[in-house]
Write a structure and sequence with these properties.
heterodimer, A: 120 residues, mainly alpha, 5 helices, 78% helix, B: 812 residues, eleven-stranded mixed β-sheet, 21 helices
């Protein structure tokens, strides 16, 4: 339950920070959420990963859906990866998720310094 | 430990962010975070079926509101209160649809591709453009243009409009190529607009055969050279009807007509523009049309690229309204019509680029010989910034001829020929060509047309014209040097003053014709005039298409716009019609292989149409290309490259003739081969080549697959390109599709009480591969279909209008 709340906070922060910051705002979203919520490195990472993966995947999917554009099919061919257009939606989520996960790791590890006694 | 792990993870996170922001692996972008972010990355370049132009926008500097209507294809119809507002809005809207292309073309024109890509070929391309003096030419021309207040105002307004678009762009709104290649748009300048026009000038007048001719002259000798490479033959149908050709010249030229270069050239030539850059245009008088109104047609043959070279637009002020295609990066309409007149262009193909051997005083290269003096060399340093590599500085030396393009150490081979060769190209001279388009946009009659053309310089074009008043006309206009016979056909001696150009043919003496009795005029890159014309008109001409067009227009009566559309899409192989029976008659069928026999039968049964699904044209084109090469390769093999062969068209005529062409013999073998041997052996060889093609490519060796009409993205992005488009044609055929080259815009205009016009181009109005308007016209274009061009009579006319927009002056 607490983990799901954490994921929700990551998503909310991701939504808000996207208004002000370039794509790397997701690292801050994962980081701030973890700093506030957990000193558990694994949870910090996973919540960042899952939150931004969901956010980016859904937003990309909605963009495809709203426009009906097939641009992602062509764009997938340009990247040095064996991906379909749909695969690119998930891959995008994974890229954003991993960066947010790293942010979460940083956040949780910082939390351990700020609150050394309360590990979790 | 806690501190260590926090530091480690934080650095790791920042490192990952940095890497995924900008990293590249050679030319492969790895900035996945930046480009895949759904809020800002390429996902934001996806566009829906209905364009979301805002209904109201503000544009700084406008004096009055501008109305813009859009039809289903996204063509903007711009209604402005004054000229300044018009070109400001044109710049703004064109940039919205084509910004990346506009900039990329300028990077290419000015030798800056190395700033964008790692590809080692980029530096070669960039050096070539710099050594051709492209930037200097544009700088010089801009000074002259900006001294003309009207041209300066038009350029300033267009530039301000483009920059207004750029300034309000966020990263999310960048065209996707910026995101992918990872760079940002720069401010637009007037210089860039002029660079674009200079690039077009190079594309259309940057071919020269001086090196090849010099070597061919050595390979064949004077007598044979003049016979084999003559361009004025009995078969030409010149642009100007013979009875309308000027026959006396106002300039007398004293030249060294006996000059023959006694050296061979061995430079590795810089890649030249596609020699098939040409075009068709024609006009028919009301006497030949069903409606009784004159009609004008134009299809410029250029490299087929995406985004397309043309951008359709209607431009209106209270004083004028013009519809047609513009070049993204330049104000005004380049090919089009208004209520009173229509005009179109084809390339003149005249030779305005000559080459001079330069003798330096010493290895310091600070002075060169001319008229028995040592004249000082001017040097210009060209700094080429390279992405991820050290800056490259090239020194380009200028003589009175122009830049020394080829020098010892640059594209030379070890040989005794001259190492230093300077270019004299008319395109480097400032001109007022932009004023011609400004005036044509506003022209009302024949006199306005002639006045507009009088400003025109380079690249020389055949301007075809029709008016509502019923006039038809054609003029080959450009600043053409008055040359003595054979001047500039070979490399000339840079030290001799009598080898310089001695003047220009006056405007009034350029080839022109008006209202001929036959009721039609046409040009298709053929020779402009017959031998009676008093000036040298050397160039690279295509005599085949013009013969077909001439025959068709002569035969047609009660012409409708649909008839002329069909003629623009005509796939009839005129050359084959003339030579194929003679060539086939000489084939020794008994000696053919099984595959050769099948090819022979296919050619016998062929309807002479270069249609995509047929095998006949595939056999024919492969065969005759091999025949031409094998006729001449042994002779030109006696000299260094670059070399040139006589035209295919003439080669085939000679081979099909009953008089034996002695060059059919391969001089490298002891036996004496005849044209019969050559044609038979090469038919087998062609059949074999097509079998191998079909096996290797796993597709049928039909004309569609062999001709491979491709429309390639400007940065060669394969998913955003088209290959093997299902369409017919070839070079030398009216529907001039050949590989990545062909009719880049087809226009048919009837000038009745209201203009009725049709058009299509292989692309779409949007430069964004994520837009439904990116390539929406490719399929209709390939099918030979047209769109009705809605010439809106006023801002309240709603014919075909799907969306309207108001651009407002920004409140102070």
């Amino acid at each position: 339950m607490k983990f799901l709340l954490h994921v929700a906070v990551v998503i909310a922060l991701g939504l808000v920070l996207a208004l002000f910051l370039p794509w790397w705002g997701v690292a801050l979203a994962g980081g701030i959420a973890a700093l506030a919520l957990t000193g558990h490195l694994g949870r910090g990472f996973l919540a960042g990963l899952l939150g931004i993966f969901l956010l980016w995947t859904v937003v990309a999917f909605l963009q495809v859906n709203a426009t009906g554009s097939q641009l992602h099919e062509g764009f997938a061919e340009l990247l040095p990866l064996p991906l379909s257009g749909t695969g690119l939606i998930f891959f995008s989520g994974l890229v954003g998720g991993l960066v947010a996960g790293l942010g979460g790791l940083s956040g949780s590890s910082l939390r351990r310094i700020v609150f050394p006694s309360r590990r979790r | 430990m806690r501190y260590f792990s926090a530091l480690f993870f934080t650095i790791l996170t920042i490192g990952a962010c940095w890497f995924l922001d900008h990293a590249r692996l050679s030319s492969v972008p790895l900035g996945f975070g930046r480009v895949l972010d759904p809020y800002n990355g390429f996902w934001q370049n996806m566009e829906g079926k209905t364009p979301d132009y805002p209904e109201n926008i503000d544009l700084t500097g406008l004096k009055a509101p501008v109305q813009v209507h859009y039809g289903a294809r996204g063509v903007p119809h711009i209604f402005a209160e004054n000229t300044d507002d018009l070109y400001r809005a044109q710049g703004y809207i064109t940039a919205r649809d084509r910004l990346w292309q506009m900039e990329f073309q300028i990077y290419a024109a000015s030798g800056r591709i190395s700033e964008l890509v790692f590809n080692p070929r980029a530096i070669e391309l960039d050096r070539a453009r710099r050594r051709h003096g492209m930037v200097k030419a544009a700088e010089d021309n801009l000074k002259v243009l900006e001294a003309d207040p009207e041209m300066k105002a038009a350029l300033d307004a267009y530039t301000a409009g483009v920059n207004a678009w750029i300034e309000q762009l966020s990263f999310a709104e960048y065209p996707l190529e910026y995101k992918l290649i990872d760079y940002a748009p720069e401010p637009w300048t007037n210089l860039k607009s002029v660079l674009l026009l200079k690039y077009m000038a190079w594309d259309l007048s940057g071919n020269s055969r001086d090196f090849e001719n010099t070597n061919a002259f050595a390979a064949f000798g004077a007598k044979e050279y003049n016979r084999l490479f003559a361009h004025l033959t009995d078969s030409i149908r010149p642009i100007i009807p013979p009875d309308m050709t000027l026959d006396s010249a106002s300039l007398t030229l004293a030249g060294d007509t006996s000059f023959i270069p006694d050296w061979l050239i061995s430079q590795r030539k810089i890649a030249e523009p596609n020699p098939n850059n040409g075009s068709n245009n024609w006009v028919v008088a009301g006497s030949k049309t069903a409606s009784g109104y004159p009609m004008l047609c134009n299809d410029p043959h250029l490299g087929l690229r995406l985004p397309a070279i043309w951008y359709e637009v209607q431009l209106t002020t209270p004083e004028h309204s013009v519809y047609g295609v513009s070049l993204p990066g330049s104000p005004m309409v380049i090919i089009g019509f208004n209520r009173d007149i229509a005009w179109g262009v084809t390339n003149s193909s005249r030779d305005v680029m000559d080459w001079y051997y330069i003798e330096y005083q010493d290895e310091n290269k600070q002075a060169y010989r001319h008229d028995d003096q040592w004249l000082p060399v001017e040097t210009r340093l060209e700094t080429i910034h390279r992405r991820g590599q050290a800056t490259f500085v090239d020194t380009v030396r200028y003589t009175l001829h122009g830049p020394v393009v080829y020098e010892a150490g640059y594209r030379d081979r070890d040989s005794a020929g001259p190492a230093n060769v300077a270019m004299h190209w008319e395109g480097m001279q400032p001109d007022f060509s932009m004023r011609t388009f400004f005036a044509l946009n506003r022209a009302k009659n024949y006199n306005d047309y002639r006045r507009a053309l009088s400003h025109y310089g380079t690249p020389g074009q055949n301007f075809v014209f029709a008016s509502r008043e019923g006039d038809i006309a054609i003029t080959q206009q450009g600043k053409f040097p008055a040359k003595w016979r054979n001047q500039g056909r070979f490399i000339m001696d840079g030290s001799r003053p009598d080898h310089l150009w001695q003047g220009y043919i006056p405007f009034a003496e350029n080839p022109t014709a008006k209202n001929p009795e036959r009721g039609y005029l046409f040009s298709a890159n053929q020779a402009p005039v017959g031998p009676e014309y008093p000036y040298e008109t050397s160039g690279r001409y295509d005599d085949t298409r013009s013969r077909r067009i001439d025959q068709r227009l002569a035969a047609m009566q009660d012409i409708t716009p649909q008839d002329l559309q069909a003629l623009q899409n005509d796939n009839f192989n005129q050359e084959a019609a003339e030579v194929l029976p003679g060539l086939l008659a000489k084939v020794d069928v008994a000696r053919l292989s099984e595959a050769g026999k099948a090819a022979y039968d296919s050619l016998r049964a062929w309807n002479l149409q270069n249609e995509p699904a047929l095998f006949g044209p595939a056999f024919y084109e492969t065969w005759v290309d091999k025949v031409r090469w094998n006729t001449w390769k042994d002779e030109i093999g006696r000299v260094d490259k670059p070399s040139s062969m006589p035209d295919r068209y003439y080669t085939l005529h000679w081979l099909a003739d009953t008089v034996e062409l002695s060059y059919a013999d391969d001089i490298t073998t002891p036996a004496t081969e005849t044209s019969r041997d050559l044609l038979t052996v090469q038919l087998d060889s062609a059949a074999q080549a097509l079998r191998e093609f079909a096996d290797a490519e796993a597709v049928p060796a039909n004309w569609q697959n062999l001709n491979d009409v491709s429309i390639t993205h400007l940065a060669s992005l394969v998913p955003f390109s088209f290959r093997r488009v299902e369409t017919g044609g070839n070079h030398g055929i009216v529907n001039a599709n050949f590989n990545g080259h062909g009719p880049s815009w087809r226009m048919v205009v009837e000038l009745g009480p209201e203009p009725v016009a049709y058009g299509v181009y292989p692309g779409g109005q949007s430069g964004n591969p994520g837009s439904p308007l990116y390539a929406n016209m490719v399929a209709p274009w390939a099918e030979g279909e047209y769109f009705k061009l809605h010439f809106l009579s006023s801002a309240t006319d709603r014919e075909g209008v799907k969306f309207s927009q108001t651009i407002n002056p920004e409140a102070p």
